User: Which sequence fits this backbone?
């Protein structure tokens, strides 16, 4: 049925009083312009983007071969997950040599060619900085574990066994959950917040800090444009390692270990020092992976007057809707009201200082359309476009994950043997040890958060292995690649891919979408997300339907026929002051 477009029935009567308040708000909030605030960041998981040598693992030459495609997206910055020398216990987040390239990914010459190729195309390159920990195969650790008086001993955190067992610290990827591992050579335990293959570096040692700054300077002198900093709030520790009781955790750290881990003494001294010794010397961007970062602490990292980092990303959004007591099991009835509150409250954190980010997917998350949209054939396209609209019309630098631009979905593997991720395998083993329901676990991961869901190879076309590799892919290609791929969508003007390109362009052409003040309009509505962005008298209204049915929204009063900036449907059904949004419909109106 053709829907009516009755735009003429809309009236704008914003009274002068509310106009005045808005104006004040704008003046106060207008942030200083920076290139990294205006950029759209595209994240590439190099292992899964494009393989050119047939070993089943993506490589740098593969990324080079796709630079035209990357440029065609309209994005400005590429963030690459770690590409350094690594034994790959955690796919590169365990670095054995910070100044080399992982052999599966290529050589330093390939890297230089990639950087040059990107810069020639006007694209910036941001690397991953993993310095809370190294690999246990790094030469520093190899030395450190040799003897108690080795010059590298204090590069890591050791606890002599004669003092008894150290106080509990969590070790994320360990079946027993412990962050300490006993090493018999020196009769001591060492600290690892992740797997035992990822020993934590001792930032309290000034030599360690100097080594890291030297390495960062080396990469910046090569010409890279920034770092995304892996679990950076975890670097500082109380090296007396006191016992932390549950009461203390509850009282001081919201009962959460990640908050405790992000609250080390001297953290901000180190970040300020890093800024002085490295970051401030170049025109580069820095992004904190905000593990344990709270609304109340975020500005300590990114308030420009403190001279630390540029931006951080929080976990409140992506942690919403997990069922407590289960590993990343998703509650399908997560609340949109809560979702809006999280993003609105975080927007408020950066109202007058600092700068935020916005993302719905990355290499640690399930695919955004499966988690926040709807990946059934009927709604996958609409909901992917709707989520893309959300990401590119919010305030804060958008981070967009490879494959989301074609609506890639969770892998939904049927058996544990299909998984490669250290985290999922450890969780499976935990359940096995405790006699839990393993089949239920596999089932829960299909819509939930097993990280391999978001790491399957890029779907370039319908051919075998989606043209990702001529060999055996390191992780299976999603079966739906015959229908969901770049080749099909590139040709289709209405595809998700071309919608993403349009939306990026729209953001670039309308700085109200970058710098404009954000205001939530429909706080209590659990079906739609409606907000405005306002800058210097210009105003954009964003309407998003998060459900699979029609949903009505009462529009704010407006005085003239608004221009539709983008719409993921052909029509907009407006009657008087009410708009009926179709399933997963997204519309942007330019109000003035
Ligand atoms: C970060 C990374 C994740 C990695 C972990 C340990 O959370 O994003 O992929 O496993 O740190 O380095």
Assistant:
């Amino acid at each position: 049925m053709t829907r009516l477009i009755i735009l003429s029935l809309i009236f704008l009567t914003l009274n002068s009083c509310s106009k005045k308040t808005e104006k004040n708000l704008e003046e106060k909030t207008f942030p200083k312009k920076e290139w990294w605030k205006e950029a759209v960041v595209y994240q590439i998981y190099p292992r899964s983007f494009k393989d050119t040598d047939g070993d089943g693992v993506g490589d740098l030459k593969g990324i080079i071969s796709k630079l035209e495609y990357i440029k065609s997206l309209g994005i400005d910055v590429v963030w690459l997950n770690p590409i350094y020398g690594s034994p790959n216990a955690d796919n590169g987040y365990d670095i054995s040599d910070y100044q080399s390239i992982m052999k599966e990914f290529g050589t330093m010459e390939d890297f230089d060619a990639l950087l040059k190729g990107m810069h020639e195309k006007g694209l910036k390159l941001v690397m991953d900085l993993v310095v809370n920990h190294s690999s246990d195969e790094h030469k520093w650790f190899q030395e450190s574990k040799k003897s108690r008086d080795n010059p590298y001993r204090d590069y890591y955190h050791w606890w002599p066994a004669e003092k008894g067992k150290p106080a509990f610290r969590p070790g994320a990827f360990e079946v027993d959950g412990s962050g300490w591992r006993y090493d018999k050579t020196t009769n001591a335990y060492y600290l690892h917040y992740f797997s035992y293959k990822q020993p934590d570096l001792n930032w309290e040692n000034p030599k360690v800090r100097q080594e890291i700054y030297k390495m960062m300077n080396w990469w910046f002198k090569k010409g890279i444009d920034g770092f995304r900093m892996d679990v950076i709030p975890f670097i500082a520790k109380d090296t007396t390692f006191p016992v932390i009781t549950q009461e203390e955790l509850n009282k001081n750290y919201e009962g959460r270990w990640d908050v405790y881990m992000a609250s080390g003494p001297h953290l901000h001294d180190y970040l300020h020092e890093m800024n002085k010794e490295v970051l401030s010397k170049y025109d580069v961007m820095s992004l904190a992976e905000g593990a344990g970062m709270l609304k109340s602490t975020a500005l300590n990292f990114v308030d420009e007057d403190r001279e630390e980092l540029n931006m951080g990303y929080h976990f409140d959004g992506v942690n919403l809707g997990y069922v407590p007591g289960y590993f990343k099991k998703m509650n399908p009835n997560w609340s949109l009201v809560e979702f809006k509150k999280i993003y609105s409250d975080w927007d408020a954190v950066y109202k007058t200082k600092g700068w935020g980010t916005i993302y719905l997917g990355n290499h640690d998350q399930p695919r955004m359309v499966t988690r926040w949209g709807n990946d059934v054939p009927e709604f996958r396209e609409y909901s992917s476009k709707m989520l893309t609209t959300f990401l590119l019309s919010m305030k804060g630098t958008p981070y967009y994950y490879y494959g989301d631009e074609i609506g890639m979905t969770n892998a939904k593997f049927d058996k544990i043997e299909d998984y490669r991720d250290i985290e999922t395998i450890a969780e499976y083993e935990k359940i096995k040890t405790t006699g839990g329901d393993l089949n239920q676990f596999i089932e829960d991961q299909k819509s939930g958060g097993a990280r391999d869901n978001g790491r399957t190879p890029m779907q370039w076309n319908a051919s075998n292995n989606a043209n990702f590799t001529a060999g055996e892919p390191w992780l299976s290609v999603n079966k739906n690649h015959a229908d969901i791929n770049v080749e099909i969508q590139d040709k289709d003007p209405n595809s998700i891919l071309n919608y993403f390109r349009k939306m990026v362009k729209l953001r670039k052409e309308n700085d109200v979408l970058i710098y404009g003040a954000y205001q939530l309009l429909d706080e209590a509505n659990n079906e739609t997300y409606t907000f405005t962005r306002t800058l210097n008298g210009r105003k954009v209204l964003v309407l998003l339907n998060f459900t699979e049915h029609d949903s009505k929204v009462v529009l704010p009063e407006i005085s003239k026929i608004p221009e539709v900036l983008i719409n993921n449907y052909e029509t907009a059904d407006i009657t008087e002051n009410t708009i009926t949004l179709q399933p997963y419909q997204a519309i942007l109106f330019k109000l003035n």
